Structure formats: structure tokens, C-alpha cells
Amino acid sequence: MSAEAEARPAPTAAFFDLDRTLIRGSANYPLAIAAFRGGHVPWRDLVKDTVNAISFHRKGSTDEGSEALRERILRAVAGIRQSDIIHLTDAIVPGIVRKAIPASMTLLSDARALGQDRIVVSASPIELVSRIAAALGLEGAVATRSELDEQGCYTGHLAGEFCYGAGKVIEIEKLAAERGYDLARSTAYSDSISDLPMMERVGTAVAVNPDRELRELARERGWRIVEIGRKRH
User: Fold this and answer.
1) pTM listed for this prediction
2) Average pLDDT along the chain
3) Active-site residue numbers?
């Protein structure tokens, strides 16, 4: 290894939560509608997702709500081919990207200017999140992965961690090991106290339109708080 290579600092990343941080509302709701129209989700579950989406838009996520959604998604996709879900996500991603928050797009641009890889980190399915990241021109995505059988169908179980709370830390550490990121010089952006483990794992934390608990903590710790409009245009 040359002296120049040894002196070159390790790369860094900017980890962005998805729902209510980069986009308005939840990315899972459009997926639920598409799954219902495709005959994969019962009408009763769609009603639950509608109510949860309204609550999430107003108040943010809860541990119980996220876990319940995870179980419902796993149950709903069991036996379905991954290619069918990818087909659904390809159809809805343009609409989701149109819900991107302009001020958050500026944060993405700022991170790029600093030379950071921009990574979306979400509890939503990787099939959806990776395509949102690609559509936004970002450098990667970390999300929940479901187990597949030999025929490429979902088994109804997770493959790895549920990418929520402490699970996000495990997944970004895996990515950091693969790409050589220096997490102490990296940044995390989120609106929710549920992402505290991720925000504490990196060197810089930024609260974006934070919920009450995260706002109070950010003020106590001197973290940057970014206020962005919630109004639809």
C-alpha cells in the first residue's frame, strides 16, 4: 500500500431515515394499496394501513406499530414471488419520489458536496427502499430483507435484522464494514426518537422535523435541528 493510500481518510456516509425525513408520510402505504390491488393484501388489512398511515403522518412511528406492520407484511407476502413485489414497487416508486421533501433534498445535496455516500435506512422492504434510493440518485440503501426459498418466493420470515431501532445499527455496521465507512465521521438524519440508536452510533446526528422526544434530546445534546414544512404542495 502506498503512502498516499495510507494517508487517505476512510470514506464517510450520511444515513437518512426515509419516512417523514426524506418523504412525506410512509412509503409502505402506497405499497399496501398496490398489494391490495394486486390481490396480495385483504381489504381489512388495507383499512388498518390507511388508519396507520394517517396516524403516522400526524404523530410518527411507534415500536408497536412498526412491529405489527412488519408481521403483517411478512404474513401477506409469504408464498409470493419476489419478482411480483418488485413489479409492484417499480410501479409506485415514481409517485413516492414525487413526495420527497424539497428541504430534505437540499440536505442530500449538502451531504454529496461533503463527499459523503448517501444511504437510505428504513424498516420498509429492501425491494422498495433500494429503488427509492436509486430513483433519488443516492449511493445505497439499508432496509428489511425477507427470506426467500429456492423458487424465489417469500417464506414469511426475515433474512437478517428487522431494520428498525437497534436493528438499523446492526445493518449500517454491516454496510460500513463492506465499504470501509468511518462511522465516527459519518452523519445520521431522522425525525424520530426510534432512530436514537443509529443517531448515537455515528459522529454527527441531525434531527429533521423531530418528534417531541427527539426534539428535547437534540436540544439537550446540542444536535442540529432542521425544520422543514409538512404542508403538501
Assistant:
1) 0.84
2) 83
3) 17, 19
